[in-house]
């Protein structure tokens, strides 16, 4: 469990801290007191995002309110509620997903999930289905994929077969839609499911979901659309996106951004998991102790066979 200080002293936690780009430390941070609607969570596992977290690591993250260093990264944490404010006492004992915390003193909580102890409003936590252990860190990505799909036409082409691309495929099928085509340029990630774009000459896709995060693909994708087709931007892009207007004009192309998931998306994807229609198996490929965070982050960002790296906090004080 996390450290419980004597009465009157601030609670503190071991946390991953990005002091500045590419300079990571594992150190203790004091925490702001819990309020009446807050829960205190002892974290068992936290995930490392290869999208937004990589941009924070590299110092390439576009400006967001509250962005700055030092910061606690991460938004994919699973743990158990061990304490709670007076309005949240019924949450004690529940295993929950936590998308981060802003209760750190002397470090920014953007997104604030990579720590042994988190304090956050109970409304931001999600009670996990029975039996969902470390795979619970995938809930935010699954809800992001679900949010994209229910926001419009289901994909008939998915670009990128990383974790998000695989979740888009699995959720599309779990919801009863036809299986889409999947593109992946990395041969090691195709797994007999995805194909290289050069092996596909189709140019009538109604709905293309880009999960690659590559900002230089827009013209290529527009050329593969059917008339009035839609490109869904499901990844996160650090650079400005652009496309040549004439081809998009002739195709009457539409673009949609899948933004943050909502509570109803979490409920929807949780129902798919508990009903057995959606499996999260095989998506967590690497696990390391939180004390090895300095080694885990380069692996998460640099190893092509790493889909999802999680940090194990259970043996940390």
Automatic annotation (TrEMBL):
Cite a single Pfam family from the UniProt record.
Answer: ADH_N
Domain Alcohol dehydrogenase-like N-terminal stretches: 35-130
Q: Which UniProt keywords apply?
A: Oxidoreductase
On the tree of life, the source organism's domain of life is Bacteria
In terms of InterPro entries, this protein maps to:
ADH-like_N, BchC, GroES-like_sf, NAD(P)-bd_dom_sf
GO molecular function annotations of the record: bacteriochlorophyllide-a dehydrogenase activity
Q: Which PANTHER family match?
A: ZINC-TYPE ALCOHOL DEHYDROGENASE-LIKE PROTEIN C1198.01, ZINC-TYPE ALCOHOL DEHYDROGENASE-LIKE PROTEIN C1198.01-RELATED
Q: What is this protein called?
A: Chlorophyll synthesis pathway, BchC
Organism from which the protein derives: Brevundimonas subvibrioides (strain ATCC 15264 / DSM 4735 / LMG 14903 / NBRC 16000 / CB 81)
Organism placement in taxonomy: Bacteria, Pseudomonadati, Pseudomonadota, Alphaproteobacteria, Caulobacterales
């Amino acid at each position: 469990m996390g450290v419980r200080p004597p009465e009157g002293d601030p609670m503190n936690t071991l946390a991953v801290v990005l002091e500045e780009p590419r300079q990571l430390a594992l150190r203790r941070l004091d925490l702001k007191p819990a309020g009446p609607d807050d829960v205190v969570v002892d974290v068992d596992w936290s995930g490392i995002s290869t999208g937004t977290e990589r941009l924070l690591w590299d110092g390439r993250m576009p400006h967001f309110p509250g962005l700055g260093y030092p910061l606690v990264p991460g938004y994919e944490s699973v743990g158990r509620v061990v304490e709670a404010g007076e309005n949240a006492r019924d949450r004690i004992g529940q295993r929950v997903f936590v998308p981060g915390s802003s209760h750190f003193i002397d470090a920014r909580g953007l997104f604030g999930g990579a720590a042994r102890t988190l304090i956050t409003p109970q409304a931001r936590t999600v009670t996990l289905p029975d039996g969902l252990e470390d795979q619970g860190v995938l809930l935010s990505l699954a809800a992001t994929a679900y949010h994209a799909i229910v926001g419009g036409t289901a994909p008939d082409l998915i670009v990128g077969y990383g974790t998000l691309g695989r979740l888009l495929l699995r959720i599309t099928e779990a919801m009863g839609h036809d299986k889409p085509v999947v593109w992946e340029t990395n041969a090691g990630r195709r797994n007999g499911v995805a194909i290289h774009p050069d092996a596909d000459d189709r140019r009538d896709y109604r709905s293309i979901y880009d999960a690659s995060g590559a900002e230089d693909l827009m013209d290529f994708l527009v050329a593969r659309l059917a008339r009035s087709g839609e490109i869904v931007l499901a990844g996160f892009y650090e650079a400005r996106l652009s496309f040549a207007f004439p081809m998009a004009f002739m195709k009457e192309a539409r673009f949609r951004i899948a933004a943050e998931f909502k509570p109803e998306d979490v409920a929807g994807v949780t129902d798919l998991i508990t009903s057995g229609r959606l499996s999260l198996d095989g998506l967590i490929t690497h696990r390391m102790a939180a004390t090895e965070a300095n080694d885990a982050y380069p692996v998460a960002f640099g190893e092509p066979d790493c889909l999802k790296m999680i940090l194990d906090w259970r043996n940390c004080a």
